[in-house]
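Input C-alpha cells:
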C-alpha cells in the first residue's frame, strides 16, 4: 500500500469506517490511558461492530490476552466493543516456549509474571542467565534505561539475547509519560546487544491479529479492507505501513504534547518529520 503524501484529518471514524471489514485497534493511549477508559473510543468500536465490522484489540502489553481482558473489564470496557484481544505477551510466550528449559533473567515487575506461567522457563540470577526477558522496568515511576546501563553492558559482553515483550518506548499513564521495555531494548541494541521483539511494529503480532479476526468472521479479509488505529509513530503507524494496511493516528496519546495544541498545519509539519506518516489522524477516537 502506498504511503500517504499528506495525512487526512478525521472528525470521526464514521467518515471512513465503511471502507473496512477489520479494525486493528491499539489499547493503551486509544481505548484507555491506564487509569480511565475513553468512553468515546469505546462507543466508536461498538459502532464499528454494529455496522458489520470486526474489531481486534492489538496491544504491546507484555501479558497474555486473558490478563488484558480482565484489565479492560476493570476499566469498564465491555466485551461488546471487540471481537478478540491479541497481545505482545501472547507472541512472547511462543518465543519463550521455543527456548524451553533455558534459564532466563527477567527484568520487569511481578505483575508480568503471568507471561511465563506454565512455561518451562526457569528464572535465575543475572549472572546465571542464558538469555534475558524484559517486560518493563522494575520501577517505571522512578527508573530509566540508564538505571540498567551496567547490567545491559554485562549482558552484551556475554552476548545474551534479550527478548523484549513490549516494544513501546514510553506510555501515557494517567497523563504521565513512563518508560517501557522498548527503551531498554533500544539501549541494549545501541551497545551491540541482540534484541528480539514480540509486538508492534513487527509482523508476528499482526499475523496473529488477522488470524483471530478471520476466525471471528469465518472468512478471509483483504488487507485493503483493514485499518489500524494507534497513537505511536514508531510502533502503531510503522507497523501498519509495514503490514500494508491503512493507518489512523490518535493525536491525544504519547505525542499529545507535540500535537494537541498545534494547528493542523503545524501537525502536518511535525508528521512530515517522522519516520512514518499516518494515512489519517484524529484528535481522539470518536465515531
Amino acid at each position: 500500500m502506498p504511503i500517504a503524501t499528506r495525512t487526512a484529518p478525521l472528525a470521526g471514524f464514521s467518515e471512513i469506517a465503511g471502507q473496512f471489514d477489520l479494525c486493528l485497534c491499539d489499547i493503551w493511549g486509544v481505548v484507555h490511558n491506564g487509569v480511565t477508559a475513553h468512553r468515546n473510543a469505546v462507543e466508536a468500536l461498538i459502532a464499528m461492530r454494529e455496522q458489520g465490522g470486526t474489531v481486534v484489540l492489538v496491544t504491546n502489553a507484555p501479558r497474555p490476552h486473558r490478563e488484558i481482558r480482565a484489565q479492560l473489564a476493570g476499566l469498564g470496557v465491555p466485551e461488546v466493543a471487540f471481537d478478540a484481544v491479541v497481545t505482545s505477551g501472547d507472541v512472547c510466550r511462543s518465543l519463550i516456549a521455543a527456548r524451553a528449559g533455558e534459564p532466563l533473567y527477567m527484568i520487569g515487575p511481578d505483575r508480568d509474571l503471568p507471561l511465563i506461567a506454565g512455561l518451562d522457563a526457569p528464572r535465575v540470577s543475572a549472572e546465571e542467565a542464558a538469555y534475558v526477558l524484559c517486560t518493563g522496568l522494575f520501577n517505571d515511576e522512578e527508573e530509566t534505561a540508564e538505571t540498567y546501563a551496567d547490567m545491559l553492558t554485562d549482558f552484551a559482553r556475554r552476548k545474551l539475547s534479550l527478548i523484549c515483550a513490549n516494544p513501546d518506548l514510553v506510555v501515557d499513564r494517567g497523563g504521565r509519560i513512563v518508560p517501557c521495555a522498548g527503551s531498554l531494548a533500544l539501549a541494549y541494541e545501541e551497545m551491540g546487544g541482540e534484541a528480539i521483539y514480540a509486538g508492534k511494529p513487527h509482523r508476528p503480532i499482526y499475523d496473529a491479529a488477522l488470524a483471530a479476526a478471520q476466525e471471528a468472521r469465518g472468512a478471509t479479509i483483504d488487507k485493503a479492507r483493514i485499518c489500524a488505529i494507534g497513537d505511536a509513530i514508531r510502533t502503531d503507524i510503522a507497523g501498519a505501513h509495514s503490514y500494508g494496511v491503512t493507518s489512523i493516528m490518535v493525536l491525544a496519546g504519547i505525542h499529545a504534547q507535540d500535537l494537541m495544541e498545534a494547528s493542523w498545519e503545524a501537525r502536518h509539519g511535525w508528521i512530515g518529520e517522522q519516520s512514518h506518516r499516518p494515512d489519517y489522524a484524529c484528535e481522539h477516537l470518536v465515531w
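The radius of gyration is 19 Å. The longest helix spans residues 203-217.
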